[in-house]
């Protein structure tokens, strides 16, 4: 499999980092409209647009293939109890190195994104300590983004 590269900084497209070992996943979700979806994922997250038609668009986001199709959006409820928070279920998200997570949190905050759960630390001092933020895309799809100082801790239990 060829290496997958993502821009390190949205404004400096000549700087890329290799994201491997990684097996890309594919996720297809419904959205209300493609224009706001393109703006949100492309401009705010720095996703690279791939193929599209008048009813769907693909993106490379952190090395994964996301497909957004026009259609009824899945209803979510805050039923997931994690730490001190009830989180939207279902949701999807990404795990990033902490420095990239902080850069993204700053960019989203500066863009005026309203957070469901604002950027904060969870499980501080415990196994799996992580920084987390929850937000929704323009169609209401919940997104959780986690940041870890050490990605080896993602699955840590002690």
Task: Describe what this molecule looks like in 3D.
Helices cover 15% and strands 47% of the residues. It is of the alpha+beta class. It has two domains: 1-73, 2,3-Dihydroxybiphenyl 1,2-Dioxygenase, domain 1, CATH 3.10.180; 74-158, 2,3-Dihydroxybiphenyl 1,2-Dioxygenase, domain 1, CATH 3.10.180.10. The strands form four sheets. A four-stranded mixed β-sheet has the order 3-6-5-4, covered by helices on one side. Strand 11 and strand 12 form a beta hairpin. The longest helix has 13 residues, at 98-110. The radius of gyration is 16 Å and the shape is globular. The N and C termini lie far apart (33 Å). The model has no long low-confidence stretch (mean pLDDT 87).
Largest sheet: 4 strands, mixed
| CATH architectural arrangement of the largest domain | Roll
Order of helices and strands: EEEHEEEEEEHEEE
> What is the CATH topology of the largest domain?
2,3-Dihydroxybiphenyl 1,2-Dioxygenase, domain 1
Keywords for this entry:
single chain, 158 residues, alpha+beta, 2,3-Dihydroxybiphenyl 1,2-Dioxygenase, domain 1, 4-stranded mixed β-sheet
């Amino acid at each position: 499999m060829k290496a997958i590269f993502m821009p390190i900084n949205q404004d400096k497209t000549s700087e890329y980092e290799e994201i491997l070992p990684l097996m890309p996943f594919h996720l297809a979700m419904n959205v209300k409209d493609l224009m706001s979806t393109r703006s949100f994922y492309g401009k705010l997250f720095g996703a690279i647009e791939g193929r599209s038609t008048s009813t769907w668009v693909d993106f490379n986001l952190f090395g994964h293939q996301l497909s957004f199709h026009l259609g009824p959006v899945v209803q979510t409820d805050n039923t997931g109890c994690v730490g001190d928070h009830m989180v939207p279920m279902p949701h999807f998200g990404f795990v990033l190195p902490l420095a990239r997570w902080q850069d993204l949190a700053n960019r989203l905050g500066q863009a005026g994104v309203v957070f469901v759960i604002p950027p904060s630390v969870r499980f501080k001092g415990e196994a799996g300590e992580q920084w987390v933020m929850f937000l929704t895309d323009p169609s209401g799809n919940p997104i959780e983004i986690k940041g870890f100082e050490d990605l080896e801790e993602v699955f840590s239990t002690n």
